[in-house]
Amino acid sequence: MACFNASQSISITVPSAPLPIESYLMQRDRLVYALMDERQVDVLDTDLFRFRLQPLKFIMLTLKPVADIRVQNQQSGIVVWAEDCYLADNAALSKRFSLTLQGTLQPQTLETETKLNGQADLQVKVDLPAALKLTPRGLLEATGNGILNGILLTMKQRLMQRLIADYQSWAAQELEMSSARA
Fold first, then answer.
1. What's the pTM?
2. 9, 55, 91, 140: most buried, per Cβ within 10 A?
3. What distances in angstroms separate CA 22 from CA 28, 33, 73, 130, 136, one per listed residue?
4. Which of 161, 151, 137, 139 is nearest to 53 (CA)?
């Protein structure tokens, strides 16, 4: 069984807006769409989303991971974890594949600013097909860890680019709607 790991941390300075970032983070779907292209996401429940990742090339294989991700608000911030995962179009390998994802995103208010601090840990375990068992372990690990790190880096970059812009847009819309009701 091969095991691959990756971790990423994030710290984003939150600009001031008419509503606190904590209120925005209660909108789980907005956070999900900041992480992933909405064409790759299905809403399964108010806090459960199915992510269909872009196909990944791993040595001789093309993998299409699909993960059911739970997103919950807790007092300290947002907690994200994978509840289920499989490989689309590869039932045989999917039975020998497991994915663990855990992430957090926590607002922290300092004297003059608010920051969002986060951490994501991703692990994949897979019983490789016989043909890949001949591949040097170091090459397998480097390739697998690199792919997982690339997934987390992509999510991190999307979060940094999209979250603040969406937060500011959301806060302005919410303020405009509350002014119209008054």
1. 0.86
2. 140
3. 11, 17, 10, 49, 47
4. 151
90 - beta bridge partners? none
Contacts of residue 84, defined as CB under 8 A and 6 or more positions apart, other chains included, come to 67, 68
Quote the CA–CA distance of 9 and 148 in Å, as a whole number: 14
Closest CA to 120 of 23, 36, 15, 13: 36
CA 97: distance to chain centroid? 19
Q: What is the CATH number of the domain that holds 7?
A: 3.30.530.20
| Nearest residue to 120 via CA among 71, 171, 58 | 71
What averages of pLDDT result for each successive group of 10 residues across the chain (182 residues)?
Answer: 93 89 91 90 96 83 89 92 90 85 93 92 87 81 91 91 92 85 68
Whether the CB-CB separation of 103 and 118 falls below 8 Å is answered with: yes
The SS3 call for residue 7 is strand
Parent domain of 23: 2-181
151/63 Cα distance (integer angstroms): 13
CA distance 65 to 86: 6
**Number of domains into which the chain is organized:** 1
